[in-house]
Amino acid sequence: MEKTLNGKIALVTGGSRNIGKLTALDLAAKGADVIITYRERAKAANETVAEIEALGSRAAALAVDFGDSAGVAGLADAVMKQVRDWGSQDLDILVNNAGTLRIGGFDQITGDDLDAIYTTNFKSVVLLTQALAPHLAEGGRIVNLSSGLANGAFPPLIAYGPLKAALQSMTLYWAQIFGARRITVNAVAPGGLDDDFNAKLFDEIIPGARDYISGNTALGRVGLPEDVSGVIAFLCEPKASFVTGATIRIDGGFKL
């Protein structure tokens, strides 16, 4: 693979599994050094670090709970300490991937559910980006993880989709704010992916979900994390320098 990101340093939140892990590996394969965050899966995070290093890039893993936004400032400090330890003053790539899920209809969702999703999927993302903004390199990259549910209703995830819509909207604001520094800001909006993030939804809540998605998708299958990570990595490359403020659907043509 062409090393288009040699000399770049990336932060991928939630990088121990699923989309985050594969994004970290894709960026490393292109030459970037990668910092990942994890909440509680230390073993998985360390395995991801080892896989990144096997690709010839430097790697580090930092623990953080995005459900407690008070820890975000400390995370930003830890990230920049690692960046400086690697001999740089700038972070080149920020992938806001970490997120949480609460399943329940309108009459089931609780205040605690709403608080958890708001804090993890929106508030902490905003605060982390704000804290790291002064340290982002000229011509850097920000990619936010939105969802197809930001633009379509699915009742069991009524607490999830609207907050992804808020992050998708914030992507537009950031694209304008960071444009003067040639920093691009984009979002990706995956459809329902067959991974362990959605396992409970697919296997327990709606057992026929895989068949429903594949039957209503132009490409005839359910998406996978690797369908998303490659697009994120592309958005971080020099060749994507004129793409900003975009939200890219990655759903195989669901309900076209």
Q: Proportion of β residues?
A: 15-25%
Major sheet characteristics:
7 strands, parallel
Overall mean pLDDT stands at 93
Helical amount: 40-55%
* Strands side by side in the biggest sheet: 3-2-1-4-5-6-7
GO molecular function: oxidoreductase activity
Family: Belongs to the short-chain dehydrogenases/reductases (SDR) family.
Keywords: Oxidoreductase
Organism: Litoreibacter roseus
List the helices and strands and how they pair.
Blueprint: E1 9-12, H1 18-29, E2 33-38, H2 42-54, E3 59-63, H3 72-85, E4 91-96, H4 111-132, E5 136-145, H5 161-178, E6 184-190, H6 199-205, H7 209-215, H8 225-235, E7 247-250
Parallel strand pairs: 1-2, 1-4, 2-3, 4-5, 5-6, 6-7
Question: Could you explain the architecture of this structure?
Answer:
The chain is of the alpha/beta class and about 260 residues long. It has a single domain (about 10-250), classed as NAD(P)-binding Rossmann-like Domain (Rossmann fold), CATH 3.40.50. About 40% of the residues lie in helices and about 15% in strands. It is built from eight helices and seven strands, in the order E-H-E-H-E-H-E-H-E-H-E-H-H-H-E. Strands 3-2-1-4-5-6-7 form a seven-stranded parallel sheet, with helices on both faces. This is 3-oxoacyl-ACP reductase.
